[in-house]
Amino acid sequence: VLRQPGSPEGELYGLAHSGDAELLAAYQQAARNADFGERLRTDPTTAAGCFVDWTAHPGAGPGWEATSAALLDEVLRPALRSAPRAHLTALTTTLA
Fold first, then answer.
1. Measured distance CA(12)–CA(55) in Å, rounded
2. Which one of 33, 42, 62, 83 is most buried, counting C-beta atoms within 10 A?
3. How far is CA 86 from the centre of its chain?
4. What was the pLDDT predicted at 91?
5. Positive or negative, the Cα torsion across 53, 95, 35, 37?
6. pLDDT value at residue 1
7. How far is CA 30 from CA 14, 90, 96, in A?
8. What value, to the nearest 5°, has the Cα angle with vertex 59 and ends 81 and 79?
């Protein structure tokens, strides 16, 4: 689910709407992995994709709302704060 090539279409939608606290916690734990944090800092496409993913599915339920807010605030923002300017420029271009 975390921006892996070949992830099934609709997987994130299913997770967001599942309301399954254990699945959401596992997803959050995977996103907090140091290796994934490094990907966010070094790969603009991954960072842009996660921004899109973690702002998607508003209203999917309180579990997803809490998970996505935590990932944006506690994972993506800190990773981008330490990213080089060129990375941020590429990220902006990818999102445009």
1. 12
2. 83
3. 20
4. 85
5. negative
6. 60
7. 17, 24, 27
8. 10
Tokens of 85: 């300017």
How do residues 32-51 score in pLDDT, each as one tens digit? 999 999 999 889 989 999 99
Query: How is residue 47 written in tokens?
Result: 């960072």
Q: Which amino acid is at 56?
A: A
Q: Both tokens of residue 60? A: 């999917």
Helix extents (H) in 1-96: 11-18, 21-31, 34-42, 44-54, 62-71, 77-81, 85-95
- Residues recorded for the chain: 96
Which of 21, 80, 28 is CA-nearest to residue 54? Answer: 28
